[in-house]
Amino acid sequence: MADIFQDALKLMVGRVDETAAQLKGAFPHFADAKGDWTTTPDGDWTGGFWPGMCWLAARVTGTVRYRRWALEWAERLRPRATSDTVFRGFLFYYGALLGAVLFDDPRAREIALEGARDWVKTYNPNAGCFPLGDAAEEASDVGQGEASVDSVQGVALLVWAAAAAHEPAWRDLAIYHARRHIEFCIREDGSVCQSASFDPQTGVLRKRYTHKGFTNESTWARAQAWAILGYALMHQWTGERDFLRVALKCADWWLAHVPSSRVAYWDFDAPVGPDTEHDSSATAITAAALLKIAAALKDVQTRREVRAAAEATVRALVEGYLDVHGILDRGCYSKRINLATRNELIWGSYYLFEALGVLTRKIEAAKI
Length: 368
Ligand code: GLY
Known about the structure:
The chain is built from twelve helices and six strands.
C-alpha cells in the first residue's frame, strides 16, 4: 500500500473536519482556493456527498463524531424525499444508504427508504425510465420528457431498497432505467452524450443533447465519468453482465482519450490551450469507478490493467490536484455558464476520498 494514498487519505479526513467547522446548517457545494465553501440550504443535487464523506470518514477512522455528523446531515435531507428530481438517487444513496450498508444504521436505512419510496412513483412505463423531473437541478431542459446519464448511478438506491422494503418490482424498474439510458446516451464507440429528450406518451427518443458539455456531439468529461460509474454500480448491485460490459466499454474510451497526465479536460472535445480547464471531479468519479470495475472483473489480466489505471489516476490527482489542506482543486462545475470552473467540488472530493479508502483497504470497492 503506497504511503502516498495513506497520507492523502489523512489530509482529506482533515478537510472533513475543516468543512464541518464552516457549515452553518447548509450543505457544501463548491469551494474556492482558500477552502471557503459556497453552500446550498437544501442540498441541491449534491447534498448527499457531504454526509457521504462523513460516513466514509467514520469507516476509515473509526471515530464516532463522523458517524454522528453523517446522521445529522442525512436527517437534513429528509424533506428532499418529495422533490421532483431524479437526483434523489445521488442524495439518498450517498447521504443515507451508505450508513445503512456500512454501519447497519437503522435511521440511515429509514431515510434511504424514504428517498426511494417517493422517487419510485415517478417511473414512466411508456419510456421505461425515471425522467429528470420538474425540479431537477440542471441549467435548463428539465421535466417529464428529459433524461440524463447522471441518473444511472442513483437507481442503485432502488435496487438496494427493493430488497430492504420487500418490493422486488423496484429492482426491475431500476434495471429498465439503466438499460434505457444505454440507448439514450451511450454512443457506438463507447463515448457518452449526457442527455436525451423523449416523448413522455410513447417513450420515443427525440434527440440527444448536453446540459453542460461543449456541444451536443462532444463528450463532456462528467457524462463519460457518470456512465462508467453508473454501469459499474448497477452491475455491482444487480449482477447483470451487460452493465459491466457497458462500464468497461466507456472506461476503455476514457483511457484511450484522456491526456497522458491522466486528468481529463472538462470536455474531451474542448479546444485545448494553456488555459483550458481540467475537471478533477470527473477524473475522481472515473477513478472510483475503475476500482469497482476491477473488483468485478474475472479475467486476471484485464483486472490488473484496470486496477493499475485506477491507481495511476488517483496518484495523478493526489500529486497534482490535492493540496496540503486536503482540498481537491480544479474541478469544473459548468464551463458553459462559467460556474466554479477551477474549484473544489463536493462530489469530486467524495469520489477521491472513496477511492483512497479503497486503495488503503479500509473500504471495499464492491460494497458501496
Ligand atoms: N448533473 C450532475 C453534474 O453536473 O455532474
